[in-house]
Amino acid sequence: MPTLLSFLESRAPTELNAVFGAIKDASIIVSAEVNRAGLGADIYGAKGTENVQGEQQHKLDVYADEVFAEAFRKSGQIVGLASEEVDDALFFEENAESDYVIMIDPLDGSSNIDVNVAIGTIFAIYKRRSPIGGPVSEDDFLQPGNEMVAAGYVSYSVSTQMVFSVGEGLHIFTLDPKHGDYHLVSENVRIPSDGKVYSINEVNYDDFDQNLQEFVQYCRDKRKGDGTRKYTGRYIGSLVADFHRNLLKGGIYVYPSTVEAPKGKLRLLYECNPMSFLVEQAGGYGTDGVTRTLDIVPTELHQRCPFFVGSPVMMDEVMKG
Ligand code: AHM
Ligand code: MG
Q1: What does the DSSP 8-state code read for residue 212?
Q2: Nearest protein Cα to ligand 1, atom 16
Q3: Is pTM, for the whole model, over 0.85?
Q4: At a CB cut-off of 8 Å and minimum separation 6, what does 169 contact?
């Protein structure tokens, strides 16, 4: 089976392949560290600091952020980085001549670290808008998702997998930790058009608008011809893991606005946008409940938005209102 970089050779420009090389190298380091969680007192547990959004940072979040940032700097092909863990975007001066900026959630689902549940890294890659040779500007990062060049996630789970698209289909690679490389396991993956799973934190049901309440009720009630249930609920609380299951099995993931998170909880630039790009490449779609996620014009780096994503039939059902 082809390795990640040999597969990409004919599909993406050399500069972008170097970015994927950096993601590969950093994710292998993070994966090894994730697999050791609990063994080193310096890695496991909360760090006691908060990120810009007032959320508790876990040591692995911060570690992953540093590993990815260093890999992007060294790649020579990334000029700017925006991360969930850092307030302001970084400019890599030594890469001023390069063309790409990247946005990442270095370790999504981090509240699951301490309970040994799947977590992931999410990334979105764009071409800069500012002139080559100079510093990056906010404009480089506040691009709508429809300008995205490539996106993906690494899921640290039963095995470590990288799921990505460079705009010509969605592909899944599995890490062989013995040999330190990713190998192709599924090419041009398609999400099942109808799904079986709805993934939503149902404790917030009373906060949902009427349309979403009716959709959840529909999923609870819907029966197949033989009288058995058509849908089932699954919610891990790690976007990467919930999304990945729904991608393979068919389903929908929803994080709407709630009383505690009036604009939704997930971040547009490095959570909702890359996942929307990926699901569209697989035949599904993502919205904020009204607008296609990739068409939202961002105004802030750490902007949140409601998120609905998944199989087209289930998405159509919730979107028809
Ligand atoms: P994080 O980026 O701080 O880890 O938060 C994002 C996570 C998602 O992975 C997950 O789907 C969601 O938060 C779960 O939130 P909740 O516990 O409110 O259901
Ligand atoms: Mg996160």
Answers
A1: H
A2: 237
A3: yes
A4: 187, 188, 189, 281
Cα–Cα distance, 8 to 12 (Å, whole number): 6
Answer whether 237 contacts ligand 1 (Cβ < 6 A): yes
Q: Rounded to 5 degrees, what are φ and ψ at 229?
A: -65, 140
CA 258 to ligand 1: nearest atom: 18
Pick the CATH number of 197-319 from 3.40.50.10770, 3.40.50.2300, 3.40.190.80, 3.90.800.10: 3.40.190.80
Q: Flag whether pLDDT at 13 surpasses 60.
A: yes
The CATH code of domain 4-186 reads 3.30.540.10
Is the pLDDT at 65 greater than 70, yes or no?
yes
Asked if residues 26 and 20 have their Cβ atoms less than 8 Å apart, the reply is no
Report the interhelical angle of 312-319 vs 210-221 (nearest 10°). 130
Nearest to 70 by CA among 22, 136, 135: 22
Q: How confident is the model at residue 160 (pLDDT cuts 50, 70, 90)?
A: very high
Report in angstroms the alpha-carbon separations of 97 from 15, 91, 94, 103, 126. 12, 12, 8, 19, 15
Name the token pair of 66.
Answer: 């540093």
